[in-house]
Amino acid sequence: MTLCDVITITRNAESNISQTLKSVSEQEYSQINHIIVDGQSTDFTVKIIDSFPHNKTFKIYTQKSIGMTAAFNEGLRYVTGDLVVFLNAGDLFVNSQVITQVVESYKNNKWLWASGETISLSRRKYLKRYIKQYHQWQQELFLYGNPICHQSTIFSQAILSQIGLYDEQLYLEADYDFNVRASLISQPYLLRFPISYYDTAGISSIKVFQSYITQRRLRKKYFPLTDNQNLIIDTICFIKAIKRFLLIPIKLYL
């Protein structure tokens, strides 16, 4: 039977870790291994995790390295399943059938990795936006930012063995780099159903100009373009960064 590993990264997440644990435990699919990597929390996060009535196999590990990217890699080192999905503290699956749908698609379509739809939420969840799936996959989508939501992406063990680990030199946009490397092996299979609720008040959504600079550097590394093409794309991406910056107060307080 297909085993799915869910990796959750936590650090001082006492206010929202319970909802993520509940979301994983309520999945109707039984073969789930919940890997929790805690970044040495100083609040009650670990106590909440230990006392939670888990009904899935779970294990909590204390992160010894520094940074979220290193935590991703630490989680990957404990993976034993056929499929892997990241669901960080505060993130939720949209319903209890998500993993069942993912596994059925994996068995039927034999994909190496897949990307589903996402519902983005502001911090207080007053605002939400349903991000629909692309009509078809195009590699050019990477030119204008990360077209794939981290929390709605599922990797097979087969492709992970080829990609390797996240680049720990990247504080931001490590998932952009990881997704580009995955796409160079195989294009993502497009799942036409929502996977997760995505908190748009996260670090990468707030530090928009740092993300813009990092993405710009990575884009030029992976996609050689003419100076004129780079200028046009840089301008479009910078305008998008400004729009995201202006939306920060809304994301944080609504």
What layout of secondary structure does this protein have?
Layout: E1 4-10, H1 17-25, E2 32-38, H2 45-51, E3 57-62, H3 68-77, E4 83-86, E5 92-93, H4 98-109, E6 113-121, E7 128-131, E8 153-156, H5 157-163, H6 174-185, E9 189-199, H7 203-206, H8 208-222, H9 227-246, H10 248-253
Parallel strand pairs: 1-2, 1-4, 2-3, 6-9
Antiparallel strand pairs: 4-8, 5-9, 6-7, 6-8
Structural overview:
- This protein is an alpha/beta fold and 254 residues long.
- The chain has a single domain (4-202), classed as Spore Coat Polysaccharide Biosynthesis Protein SpsA, Chain A (Alpha-Beta Complex), CATH 3.90.550.10.
- It has helices spanning 17-25, 45-51, 68-77, 98-109, 157-163, 174-185, 203-206, 208-222, 227-246, 248-253; strands at residues 4-10, 32-38, 57-62, 83-86, 92-93, 113-121, 128-131, 153-156, 189-199.
- Strands 1, 2, 3, 4, 5, 6, 7, 8 and 9 form a 9-stranded mixed β-sheet that branches.
- The relative contact order is 0.15.
- The mean pLDDT is 92.
Unreliable residue stretches? none
Number of helices: 10
CATH superfamily: Spore Coat Polysaccharide Biosynthesis Protein SpsA, Chain A
CATH class wording: Alpha Beta
Q: Could you say what the CATH architecture is?
A: Alpha-Beta Complex
CATH topology: Spore Coat Polysaccharide Biosynthesis Protein SpsA, Chain A
How much beta, percentage-wise? 15-25%
Tell me roughly what share of residues is in helical segments: 40-55%
Biggest beta sheet attributes: 9 strands, mixed
Order of helices and strands: EHEHEHEEHEEEHHEHHHH
Number of strands: 9
The coarse overall form would be globular
Write down the domain tally: 1
Assembly state (oligomeric): single chain
